[in-house]
Design goal:
Elements (H helix, E strand, L loop, with lengths): L20 H31 L5 H28 L8 H7 L12 H29 L2 H22 L5
Helix pairs in contact: 1-2, 1-3, 1-4, 2-5, 4-5
Family: Belongs to the Dps family.
InterPro entries: DPS_DNA-bd, DPS_DNA-bd_CS, Ferritin-like, Ferritin-like_SF, Ferritin_DPS_dom
Protein name: DNA starvation/stationary phase protection protein Dps
Length: 169
Amino acid sequence: MAKANKTGKTKLHPTKNPISENVRGSMVELLQTHLATAVDITYQTKQAHWNVKGMNFIAVHELFDDLHEVVEDYVDKIAERLTALGGQAHGTVQASVENTILDPYPLELVKSEDHLKRLADSYAKWSKAAQEGLEEAGEAGDDLTEDLLTEVARGLDKSIYFLESHFQA
């Protein structure tokens, strides 16, 4: 979560952004969680990319690399939206560990099917949170954050489809 000041509010940088300070503060907190989760899933996907073995190795290896690039773009977009609202992006690996919604990725996975299923779980968990977040942003009247989280949720759903297609009959 974003660091709060003594009044319990998220500390924001001065900005001419027309959204109220209360809404900006709540959106910064929301986006901090999504930034942490995006950083986490970026490296969960790379972990799978580096360590996958088995049938269809090259196809799965390349899929994981492609998914990594997509999610890495979300990291940047989320951080930039957060800072445009006057927040301070907490985008380090350490901050991610403290704020991600995802479960730790098992380091012992090797088989492609195991990586595919585990990543599908992580992507689905973040997708659900992104959909909830876009509703929260809509209710707060922050159309741009709602739009960003819609883009993220749409991309995550596509990634889930790519992952699950390997083990669905």
